[in-house]
Amino acid sequence: MRMIVYNASPTLARFHASNAFVRGIKGPVGSGKSTGVSMEIMRRAREQKPAPDGKRHTRWAIVRNTYRELADTTLKAGLD
How far apart are CA 42 and CA 40, in angstroms? Predict the structure, then answer.
């Protein structure tokens, strides 16, 4: 298993600290938005209490304007 080292920028640290039901983040290209959101999903999933079957059942939605944007950014961040 690979060790992941993640240091959130001040903006992403505020994003991670929020418990709002709906949140969004924006910033310049290359600022780490996709990585930050991916890390937030993983963190929240790890913190979730397992169901009686021992699994952590969760659902998420990541929205982009086009499929191309989804493939070029979000999927790339998840596969790196």
Answer: 5
